[in-house]
Every structure is written in structure tokens, then in C-alpha cells.
Design brief:
The chain has helices at residues 11-22, 38-44, 77-85, 92-99, 114-127, 198-210, 225-233, 271-286, 291-298, 327-340, 360-363, 382-387, 395-402, 413-422, 446-449; strands at residues 2-6, 26-30, 65-68, 89-91, 104-109, 133-135, 147-148, 155-160, 164-166, 169-172, 181-184, 217-221, 239-243, 248-251, 254-259, 262-266, 309-314, 317-322, 345-351, 375-379, 407-410, 428-433. It is an alpha/beta fold. The strands form 5 sheets. Strands 7-6-8-5-11-12-13 form a 7-stranded mixed sheet, with helices on both faces. The chain has a 6-stranded mixed sheet with strand order 17-18-22-19-20-21. A hairpin with a 2-residue loop joins strand 14 (248-251) and strand 15. The longest helix has 16 residues, at 271-286. Residues 3-98 form the Mur ligase N-terminal catalytic domain.
Length: 450
């Protein structure tokens, strides 16, 4: 099968391209710019375009499929050529569905926690040498790629994103998968550039349950009242299973999970991660892994990349980076770190990087999300605000929205880097939350600065 990727450098797109080549497909692609780690991965696979840009001559009648990434625009010249030729054009979630039409599709949805839950499930399956296909939104220890497709595996585990599928397909990605087994972890307003009201955003999860196939199974977090409301109203799933945060204790900075066999130390921490673990356990049981096998495997799970990832632990200073950026994620992550390190000075840093977080109206959603920290540092780039064509944001607006007694705001990446480089962080836990990189911060350098 011959496939061409328009915007091959995307996070999910480049992983799908590599997975299809490993499956034996002929793969080509284009993009106007490609960043790391996509660039190196594509280069190692022999799939990096010879030059950046869009080349309609790459689109020929003998292509079996054109896969369109969200980074491309509706007037993309390669897309227009594919439309002129009448070629089959897929978004990547639509193509993943076609690749899994004869499999049991396990879809993990929710405003937060979906990457971690997907990672937990895959870790358990990998531990017990149970082969499954998958698509996950973060790099996992023990896995070469973030997408894996075969002709033989019975299950495919899909992280179910609620963002749009492609520039010409305005459906949320998780609507396209038609789940056999699904999970919803939480519902908290996000993506305000697409879903302008909370009601519209919540509606997408209601539609998600309605896209599930007849006879399907829905696993849901009953501690989230909105999830519970959506799940209980859903009519498509034949069976529903609620989960909740299990009992646990923290002793000397180590979290112990209560199990039928007694207390078990685990690598991850935070109430939100314990809640995620409970959901993952239910899904694994539906995939043929019993409770005892799950606990055996999950004991050494360290988390997905950038999810409370410890990047330094030196001379009494502990530093984490985390992908948290939406208000619900920021609050859960901040509270988790506070609870795990109650006696340390706690500094929480947050980069406002997404369209939603840089919108003044939505910024109010961050009120009280960082209250667990002793000190708060917020970074944002005025250039990013301008690129997103938003109204200019002032530090005072951030202070008024977040309302923390000890708050600093940085807009210059050099000054923020100097703060980290020269700060006094003795007996301190430092949390760096962002879906970006603070204007070019090299996280690997931070340990050397302590």
C-alpha cells in the first residue's frame, strides 16, 4: 500500500508513518518544518523529506491513501492536488480506525490522565508479554515508537484525544474510533479555540459514548461528577464499570498502594495518578489480565515521559517536569507534589503556552490551581500571544487570575533561565509544568545548576 503524509513531522503523524513502514507499506511525506525528536526519528527510518515545503508533484494517482495532519492548512497545495485527483484522504484517527477495523478497540478518553492511563495499560501488557497494537501520546520506557500496528494482534489501545481530526475533518479524534472498550477519566473545559463554551466541550464526551459499538464496555471515574453524569446517561455501552481512587499511604516520600496482598510500594505518586491506576486496572482486567497480575506489573511503572518526570534529585533539591497545562491538570499535579513532599519548600513553575491558557477569559480558570505551592512562577511569551493572534496579555492579568501571595511573572526566556540558574533551591522541590519548553529551556542542563 502506498501512503503519503501531508505534515509528516507531527507528533502522532511521524510515529504513524514509521509504524506503517515497519508494516511493509510504502511511505512518503512532506512538511514545511520538522522539529526534534520527529526529525531524528524520521531520518533514522529513511522518511525525512529531502527538503521542507509542499510539493504537489508528490501527489500522484497511484497513491492508495493520503494522510492529512492537523498542522496543514485547508489550502495546502498537496491537499488540493489530492482532492483534484479524487484520492482517498484520511485524518490520522480515521486511518487508525481503518487499520483496526477487525480488532478490539480500547479507547482511553478524558480531559486529563489519558496518556498516563494508556501508558499504564501498555506497561502491564508489555510486562506480561501480551502483544497489542497501540497509539499513545508520549514516549514510553521499553517502547521504540508511540504507534505500533500489526495484522495479527487482537487488541489496539488508543489514546482518545478530543481535539479536531484534521483541517477538513472537524470531528474530535476520539469520535472516529468506535470503541469496543472505553474509559473516561475526567471532564474539564479545554480547547476554547474550538469549543467556545463548556457545554459544547462536554457534549463531545456525550457523543463519544454514542459512537461506541453495540455491546461495548464503558469504564469511568465516578469521582468526577461530570463523567458520572455522562456515563450514567450513556445508552450505547452494554456494561458500565465505575472506578475510584484506591486507598494509599505516603511514608518517607514513598507511596504505598493498598492491595489484597497488603501494602505495595509504587514508583508514581499523587492522588490523580492513583485514580488513573484504578482505571487502568479495570481496562487490563477486560483485556485478560487479572488483578494480581496487574499489581505485579504496575509496581515498577515510572510514568510516561513528561508526566511527573523526575529530572534531578541532588543535595536535597528535587526537580520534576510535567506536561500539565490545563487548569485541572495543573491543580492535580501541584497538589500531588505538595502531598508527597510536605516538609520541603515548594516552587511551582507554569508556562502559559496553549491557546486556551493565553486567553484572558479562560485564564480565570487557573484561580486557586497553584495554591498548594509556597511560591509560584509563571512564564509566557508575548511573541506566542502575537502568533496566536490573541489580545496582548499583561502580567497584572495573570496575578489577578491566579491570586497567589508569592507570584513572579517572567516574559523573557533568558531571565527565566537565569532565575533557575542562580536561584537558591536548598531543601526545595521545583515543579516545571508546560506543554512547551519555556522559550527554549534545555531541561538536561538544570541538574548541573543545582
Amino acid at each position: 500500500m502506498r501512503t503519503h503524509f501531508i505534515a509528516i513531522g507531527g507528533s502522532a503523524m511521524h510515529n504513524l508513518a514509521i509504524a506503517l513502514q515497519e508494516k511493509g507499506y510504502t511511505v512518503t511525506g512532506s512538511d514545511d518544518t520538522i522539529f526534534e525528536p520527529s526529525k531524528s526519528r524520521l531520518e533514522n527510518a529513511g522518511l525525512l523529506p529531502e527538503e521542507y515545503g509542499w510539493f504537489p508533484q508528490k501527489i500522484t494517482a497511484n497513491l492508495d491513501a493520503v494522510i492529512l495532519g492537523m498542522h496543514a492548512k485547508p489550502d495546502n497545495p498537496e491537499l488540493q492536488k489530492a482532492q483534484e485527483l479524487g484520492l482517498k484522504i484520511y485524518s490520522y484517527p480515521e486511518f487508525l480506525y481503518e487499520q483496526s477495523i477487525d480488532k478490539t478497540r480500547v479507547v482511553i478518553g478524558g480531559s486529563h490522565g489519558k496518556t498516563s492511563i494508556t501508558a499504564m495499560i501498555l506497561h502491564v501488557m508489555h510486562y506480561h508479554e501480551k502483544e497489542v497494537d497501540y497509539m499513545v501520546g508520549a514516549q514510553l520506557e521499553g517502547f521504540d515508537t508511540m504507534v505500533h500496528l500489526t495484522s495479527d494482534n487482537d487488541f489496539i489501545v488508543l489514546e482518545g484525544d478530543e481535539y479536531l481530526s484534521s483541517p477538513i475533518d472537524r470531528r474530535p479524534k476520539f469520535h472516529l474510533y468506535q470503541a469496543n472498550i472505553a474509559l473516561i477519566s475526567g471532564i474539564a473545559w479545554d480547547h476554547v479555540n474550538v469549543f467556545e463554551t463548556f457545554e459544547d466541550y462536554k457534549k463531545q464526551f456525550e457523543i463519544f459514548t454514542d459512537t461506541m459499538i453495540n455491546g461495548s464496555i464503558l469504564v469511568y471515574n465516578e469521582e468526577d461528577p461530570l463523567v458520572k453524569e455522562v456515563a450514567e446517561a450513556a445508552t450505547k455501552p452494554t456494561r458500565k464499570h465505575a472506578y475510584y481512587t484506591p486507598n494509599y499511604t505516603i511514608k518517607n516520600g514513598v507511596t504505598f498502594l493498598e492491595t489484597p496482598e497488603g501494602e505495595m510500594p509504587i514508583e508514581v505518586f499523587g492522588e490523580h495518578n492513583l485514580n488513573n491506576l484504578a482505571g487502568a486496572k479495570w481496562i487490563c482486567q477486560h483485556m485478560g489480565v487479572d488483578e494480581a497480575e496487574f499489581y505485579e506489573a504496575i509496581a515498577d511503572f515510572k510514568g510516561a515521559s513528561k508526566r511527573l518526570e523526575k529530572i534531578a534529585d541532588k543535595k536535597g533539591t528535587v526537580i520534576f517536569k510535567d506536561y500539565a497545562h490545563s487548569p485541572s491538570k495543573v491543580k492535580a499535579t501541584t497538589e500531588a507534589v505538595r502531598k508527597q513532599y510536605p516538609k520541603k519548600r515548594f516552587i511551582a513553575c507554569l508556562e502559559l503556552h496553549t491557546y486556551s491558557s493565553l486567553t484572558p477569559v479562560f485564564l480565570q480558570q487557573y484561580n486557586n490551581t497553584l495554591a498548594a505551592a509556597d511560591e509560584v512562577v509563571v512564564f509566557y511569551s508575548p511573541e506566542a500571544v502575537e502568533i496566536k493572534q490573541l489580545d496582548a496579555l499583561k502580567p497584572k492579568q495573570i496575578s489577578e487570575a491566579i491570586q497567589h501571595d508569592r507570584l513572579k511573572v517572567y516574559t523573557n526566556p533568558v531571565m527565566f533561565k537565569e532565575y533557575l540558574k542562580n536561584g537558591a533551591f536548598a531543601n526545595t522541590v521545583l515543579l516545571l509544568m508546560s506543554s512547551g519548553n519555556y522559550g527554549g529551556l534545555n531541561f538536561k542542563e538544570i541538574e548541573d545548576w543545582i
